[in-house]
């Protein structure tokens, strides 16, 4: 049995001013053939799950082409056309095939196709015909659409955020496609899309209401005849009609069963819709708390064990403050959500208040170049950050010592958001300021999802008073185990928790909580 693998993985922030052009995909990595398998063999991503299934079930997984880039703005028409022309050409020319496996993210928007993932699935279906089994595995932040479900036989969504289960969910997609191709099962699926979205600050599956939504899906999967159930949180920073939450149920030859299960899960969630939005701390409130409540450094031998079996991280007790850095989640500069990576809103206040023991990253190629030119050990005065646009603060002037410069490449062998193993921040410089702040300057936009990012340049984050993690949930596998406390901070930016700052032109209306009188009749 020969099954090809292909995909375009992108989370599109339509409010971002940084386009996802072909060069952006090239910079992040366009993989072809064996390189795809080599990069994912020891990782925990969706493709790793497909590979595991191939090994265990005995089918041939044929890697065609896989393209991804970090979350930024809309995919250009040129990029989409060039990528799909090549990979769809491979799909047409390198057969015959017995089935297809797709590895897309699920929240992609291109200049031509607002539902890029739906169009991608439609095109694949057109190439392989109506009878071939097609499976896709999506990120939990996917804006899942009816065309995605219509043009695939199996659509499975990750169940954890932070994303610790891409591999087992990919493994299950491949398993169902394999069994369907052999005629052992007949998967049919239904998508339910109530008019609601969940704010990014409530998308952590380790706490309610998402914890309960996932539990409902797991329980529904145990019903006789049900092959899989998924809940997609959606991605609220895409101004498209499909934006919002979705539930998918797959049944064995029984569409009415799939429909009733999906509707039941969605109806339970709808009853808790008021819990999907919450106020979070201001910058001043967060820094005040951190300064007043820091209890000392973390014992490096006392880090908690993070689950590796796909279960969600359990948060510390709300009232508990432990030893370890106070970790401030910079919501408005959520790099994993398509932000600029160079927000200075928190840094500016910390510098202004003279707060030392402070650590954060900044995307700033210009400052990296200045550090490289000066050399390790040099003292430099730089205006750092705030250079992408006018939403993420102004450059902050600092004077400090260049402590280290690296190529920005590092490896994470432990659990990580998304299950990736290899990372690249571009040429990276460590700057220790005279005010006691440590700033990691990167020449590529890189999220704070693994502590290896810090260790590789000689920084031990456990010893800092305050660590700024640019994200909401994705940094948790890295920083929650060492944190004295994790605080969400409502900073300005293209991923801010204050959704009223965005003007939508294409979303569904009504959509709760933007329209509080929205109705849903399952």
What does this 3D model show about the protein?
27% of the residues lie in helices and 21% in strands. The chain has 522 residues and is of the alpha/beta class. The strands form 4 sheets. Strands 12-13-16-17-11-18-10-19 form an 8-stranded mixed β-sheet. Strands 2-3-1-4-5-6 form a 6-stranded mixed β-sheet, sandwiched between helices. Strands 7-9-8 form a 3-stranded antiparallel β-sheet. Helix 3 crosses helix 7 (166-181), helix 4 (77-93) packs parallel to helix 5 (116-128) and helix 8 (210-220) packs antiparallel against helix 9 (255-270). The longest helix has 17 residues, at 77-93. It starts with a strand and ends in a 33-residue tail after the last strand. Residues 305-312 have low confidence and may be disordered.
Strand and helix map with partners:
Elements: E1 2-9, H1 22-28, E2 30-32, H2 34-40, H3 46-57, E3 60-68, H4 77-93, E4 99-102, H5 116-128, E5 133-138, H6 146-150, E6 154-157, H7 166-181, E7 187-192, H8 210-220, E8 226-232, E9 246-252, H9 255-270, H10 283-293, E10 326-330, H11 345-352, E11 358-363, H12 365-374, E12 379-384, E13 396-406, E14 409-411, E15 422-424, E16 428-433, E17 437-442, H13 452-455, E18 466-469, H14 476-479, E19 485-489
Parallel strand pairs: 1-3, 1-4, 4-5, 5-6, 10-18, 10-19, 11-17, 11-18
Antiparallel strand pairs: 2-3, 7-9, 8-9, 12-13, 13-16, 14-15, 16-17
Helix pairs in contact: 3-7, 4-5, 8-9
């Amino acid at each position: 049995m020969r099954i090809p693998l292909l995909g375009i993985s992108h989370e599109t922030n339509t409010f971002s001013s940084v386009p996802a052009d072909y060069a952006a995909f090239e910079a992040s990595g366009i993989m072809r053939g064996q390189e795809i398998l080599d990069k994912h063999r020891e990782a925990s991503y969706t493709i790793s799950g497909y590979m595991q299934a191939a090994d265990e079930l005995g089918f041939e997984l044929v890697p065609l082409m896989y393209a991804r880039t970090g979350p930024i703005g809309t995919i250009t028409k040129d990029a989409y056309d060039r990528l799909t022309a090549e990979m769809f050409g491979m799909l047409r020319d390198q057969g015959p095939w017995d089935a297809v496996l797709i590895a897309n993210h699920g929240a992609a928007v291109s200049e031509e196709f607002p539902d890029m993932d739906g169009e991608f699935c439609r095109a694949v279906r057109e190439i392989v015909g109506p009878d071939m089994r097609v499976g896709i595995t999506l990120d939990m932040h996917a804006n899942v659409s009816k065309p995605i479900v219509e043009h695939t036989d199996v659509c499975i969504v990750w169940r954890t955020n932070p994303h610790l289960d891409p591999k087992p969910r990919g493994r299950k997609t491949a398993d169902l496609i394999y069994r369907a191709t052999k005629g052992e099962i007949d998967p049919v699926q239904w998508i339910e899309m109530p008019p609601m979205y969940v704010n990014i600050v409530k998308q952590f599956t380790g706490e309610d209401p998402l914890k309960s939504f996932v539990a409902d899906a797991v329980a529904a999967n145990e019903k006789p005849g049900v092959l899989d159930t998924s809940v997609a949180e959606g991605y609220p920073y895409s101004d498209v009609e499909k934006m919002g939450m979705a539930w998918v149920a797959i049944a064995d030859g029984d569409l009415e069963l799939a429909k009733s299960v999906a509707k039941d899960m969605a109806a339970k969630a709808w009853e808790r819709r008021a819990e999907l939005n919450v106020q979070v701390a201001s910058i001043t409130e967060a820094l005040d708390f951190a300064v007043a409540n820091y209890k000392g450094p973390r014992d490096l031998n006392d880090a908690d064990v993070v689950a590796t079996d796909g279960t969600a991280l359990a948060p510390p007790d709300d009232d508990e403050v432990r030893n370890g850095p106070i970790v401030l989640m910079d919501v408005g500069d959520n790099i994993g959500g398509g932000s600029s990576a160079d927000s200075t809103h928190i840094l500016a206040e910390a510098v202004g208040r003279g707060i030392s023991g402070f650590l954060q990253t900044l995307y700033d190629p210009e400052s990296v170049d200045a550090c490289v030119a000066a050399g390790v050990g040099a003292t430099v005065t730089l205006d750092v950050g705030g250079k992408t646009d006018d939403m993420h603060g102004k450059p902050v002037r600092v004077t400090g010592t260049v402590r280290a410069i690296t190529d920005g490449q590092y490896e994470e062998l432990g659990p990580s958001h998304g299950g990736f193993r290899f990372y690249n921040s571009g040429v990276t410089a460590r700057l220790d300021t005279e005010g006691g702040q440590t700033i990691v300057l990167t020449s590529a936009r890189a999220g704070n999802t693994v502590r290896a990012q810090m260790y590789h340049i000689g920084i031990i984050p456990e010893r800092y008073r305050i660590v700024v993690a640019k994200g909401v949930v994705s940094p948790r596998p890295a920083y929650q185990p060492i944190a004295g406390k994790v605080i969400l901070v409502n900073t300005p930016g293209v991923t801010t928790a204050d959704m009223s700052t965005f003007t939508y032109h294409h979303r569904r209306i009504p959509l709760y909580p933007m329209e509080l009188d929205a109705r849903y009749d399952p």
